[in-house]
Amino acid sequence: MTVYNNLPILTMRGNFFFPGIRAKVEVARTISRNAIKFALENGGRFVMVSQTDVTMATVNSITDFYEVGVLAEVVAVEKNTTESMLVVVRTLDTVELFDVNISNTLLTASAKQVQFVCKNDASSRALFLHTLKHMEDLSAINKNLAKSNIEKFRQKEDVDYLAFTDVVANEIVTRLPERQSILQERDVDVRMEKICAYIIGDLEFVRTEKRIANRVKKQVADGQKEYYLREQIKAISAELGDDANERAEYEERIKKSGMPEQVRKKAQKELARLSKMAPTSPDAAVIRNYLDWLCDVPWSKETTDNKDLALARQILDEDHYGLEKIKDRIVEYLAVMQLTGKLNGPILCFVGPPGVGKTSIVRSIARALGRKYLRVSLGGVRDEAEIRGHRRTYVGAIPGKIVYMMKQAECINPVLLLDEIDKMGKDNRGDPASAMLEVLDPEQNFSFTDHYLEVPYDLSKVLFVCTANATDDIPEPLLDRMEIIDLSGYTELEKVQIAQSFLLKKNLELHGIPQDAVTITDGAYAKIVRGYTSESGVRSLERAIAKICRKIALKLVENIDAKITVTEDTVHEYLGVERHKEEMGLIADTVGSARGLAWTRVGGVTLNVDATLFQGKGDVQLTGNLGDVMKESARTAISLVKSFADDYGIDKKRFAETDIHIHVPEGAIPKDGPSAGITMATVVMSAFSGIPVSGKVAMTGEITLRGKVLPIGGLREKALAAYRLGIQKVIIPKGNERDLDDIPQDVKNKLEFVLAEDIHTVFKHALVQQN
Length: 771
Hints:
Elements: E1 3-12, E2 22-27, H1 30-41, E3 45-50, E4 68-80, E5 85-102, E6 107-113, H2 122-141, H3 148-154, H4 161-172, H5 176-184, H6 188-219, H7 225-239, H8 242-257, H9 261-275, H10 282-296, H11 309-319, H12 324-340, E7 347-351, H13 358-369, E8 373-377, H14 385-388, H15 401-409, E9 415-419, H16 432-439, E10 448-449, E11 456-457, E12 463-468, H17 476-479, E13 483-486, H18 492-510, E14 518-520, H19 522-532, H20 539-558, E15 564-566, H21 571-575, E16 593-600, E17 603-615, E18 620-623, H22 628-643, H23 653-657, E19 658-663, H24 677-689, E20 697-699, E21 702-703, E22 709-710, H25 715-724, E23 729-733, H26 745-750, E24 752-756, H27 759-766
Parallel strand pairs: 1-3, 7-12, 7-13, 8-9, 9-12, 14-15, 16-20, 18-19, 20-23, 23-24
Antiparallel strand pairs: 1-6, 2-5, 3-4, 4-5, 5-6, 10-11, 16-17, 17-19, 21-22
Helix pairs in contact: 2-6, 4-6, 6-7, 8-9, 8-10, 9-10, 11-12, 11-13, 18-19, 18-20, 22-24, 24-27
């Protein structure tokens, strides 16, 4: 083995020459001209190698060129200018570089002769003859191929197979990767195999070109140039091009998608159908769209959940004030996940009036868990296909909202908000609420089937969170699949804290006001809450603060250095006259008038009930847009008062001679339910006995004919309504004592709760002279 030391390296941006070749080389780059000059000064020899990236103008490391090249020598210099050189070189041998030295001006290295393995047996002779045969076939088609080389080697009995491969590869193999592969191959038989395979490929390419040309000529008439071109494109695509590429692309996408075996078989079946169709067929477009959906929907990609309980709690507290039930539930979910290592997503449903933070808390849940967040608005959805998708037989069919959102999520475990789930309707197109049964059932949603996809899809790792204003319009089977968490509303103190910590900062940033330019006192916040808002949530409060910020922005434009403080006494300058002042505070003690408490979809409210007596025949009038249940409660209350007339010194004959009119104000609003029973009994007793009802008291509870006070629902919302209006005492059923734990402590500190088992307790605390 011969070793050559300190040889200059000429890096070629293109094809090199195999050994045994004499050729001209134009050298232009400075580092290349320096290599030729160095060679001329030191015996004329150098190493010719190809760059790995022919587009690179500079060589910076040993990885930028191949280590196996060709030893060559300079025979003559035909041109030498400041910009380029034209040299005649003769290639001598195949060498491998080592001890490479790289600089900005010159590349040098030592090189050792590559040792080849040549068997020179019958198999070598067979490969040689086989290659010659294909060379003859190629020369018959390609007139540029020199036949002299074929004849020269055919006539020899003792053929140098290494030299044969060098000459043939240099003349026939044109693509750099194949040339380099052959140069580096040390087994001569394998070299001949590679050359033979290359020639066969060239032959097939040339024959296919002719076949395409013949096919096109048969399909088109002379002179139809445009049609000829289009048919030629079709023929090329069908023979070797786009169809094959499309299929390979889809196969690669199917492989990378991670879809289950059952789904993969479905995709492969559809792909096989597509490959048999014409590319312009309408059905082909449908199948392509279907395969795109199958490949784009996530099947196995999953994000990593945040299991840090302290961090999750911190994120939830940063984004929302209060809402302890929801925060505790999410932290519990993380704790269980830590212990088990996995957990199928629970289905939570946040129920409460508008503006209490149902939707925004879901974004915080996603952030706390480290999951992606998506939202689907179900308000007004009436078509089952919007949930399950359309079957592919329909024109323009697409998957339903669930699969669409999973595609957007790009993972199988997002937090998916189903907003306003109580607002879904139904008509002749189906019942979307029924379609949601499979989505929200942990026992079924691991194999949810969309009509479009027609294959099972696993939704078990999705954390579904629903929101609703009330559960009345949610079908019972759907409600049974969800874990209900009530968000009743905020107390005045909570609203003040939310305004200070969240709403003011948000609106100052929104209006471009510096944080230190505005101060709103606690008294001002409290006055805004009492006088300008009357709601369970904080949307009106945020609008009020935004209005203040707009007026402050105007002042700052006029005086950029102003420091503005909003106090209780100056709130009206920004918000005008108080809207709810007449409803605040206590009302006077009044005969035949009491204040009840009611639950609505937007939270708790107070409900005045009035009764008046006049001479008549014992008739009863009930007005105020009352429902059937409430009317029955009124008649029950009248009968109850009649039965206890002797106990309160009322002459029973008066009932037969007196007409009773019970009215609940705000008659435009429908009212129903049994919880006003004790209120109606109190106003009837007050009207007949002449004893005023305390204006400090509000009450709620169902009444029986025996005087028992039965439990009611919505106590938390009703208590918050009494708290907002400044009530001092609230009479509730004894059976609701367990619900007092759900009432905020600051509300319980301000309100006195009276637990009544019978109507006598109610009269004792509600009627002024009974206290």
